Amino acid sequence: MTIRSAALVISPSRAEAIAAAKELAPLLYSAGFSLYTISDVSIEGIKKVAPADLPDIEIAVVLGGDGTILRAAEITLKRNVPLLGINMGHVGFMAEVNRPTIAAIAESIIAKSYVSENRMILRFAVERAGKEIGTGWALNEVTVERDGTTMVELFVEIDNRPLSHWGCDGLICSTPTGSTAYAFSAGGPVLWPEVDALVLLPISAHALFSRPMVVSPKSEILVTIESSDALLSADALRKIPLHAGDRVLITRDDQTIKLSHVSKTLFTDRLVAKFKLPVEGWRGE
């Protein structure tokens, strides 16, 4: 029998996630899976490894919320494998809307019957004194923010043309996936995942024009730091301190994240469930 491998990424702070992993592991193990985790948990049948030591896997299963999914994306992007998010009690925008049974989750993994969609990611590069000092990526958003109590001074260009100077708390560049995260809380628009666009949004800018903008994914967004310091953050996980004169180039990446679900769910239904939108009385099917 061919040995199959899967990673379970588990939120260690959620008792229900650990309980679900303990129930799921024997079902997958009995089907011939070798199981691994990068999470700080100890569960029989699941080998705990460092992310760098994780072997080839066919899927990563996330038992947790959207934050855990963002952490798991770091291991699936490099391997180009599906990322299956399971709702552990709180409706998110990347996990299942309704939590499937453990048996249904196991069956979808064993039969590979889960559905996947490719989600856009961003690529960034930081230049200092003419040299590239850092690169990275983000599934939700790249932000350039103040790194202290005073606002940052930023100059933004799009496609080699000047857009604006902003004194602000920061600037968000978001994917459609990230439009329901930090960008949403800052007043940005909600983009359906299949919309091919980026959101650019100054945070608390001292300017006459500081509205959210929807930008072509083919565009190059260049942010120059004009204040003494700032902080680049990618999905609030990967951070780079910035200094005056640093330039941050943000573009769409050629790679994508394969976000997967046990069953297909429309984004509209996800939006309704997340915000408990009033749809009572709708007579459609």
Automatic annotation (TrEMBL):
Keywords: Kinase, NAD, NADP, Transferase. One of its GO terms (biological process) is NADP+ biosynthetic process. The keyword Glycoprotein does not apply. Transmembrane segments: none annotated. Pfam families: NAD_kinase, NAD_kinase_C. GO terms for molecular function: NAD+ kinase activity. Gene3D superfamilies: Probable inorganic polyphosphate/atp-NAD kinase, domain 1 (3.40.50.10330), Probable inorganic polyphosphate/atp-NAD kinase, domain 2 (2.60.200.30). The keyword Magnesium does not apply. HAMAP family: NAD_kinase. This is Unannotated protein. It comes from freshwater metagenome.
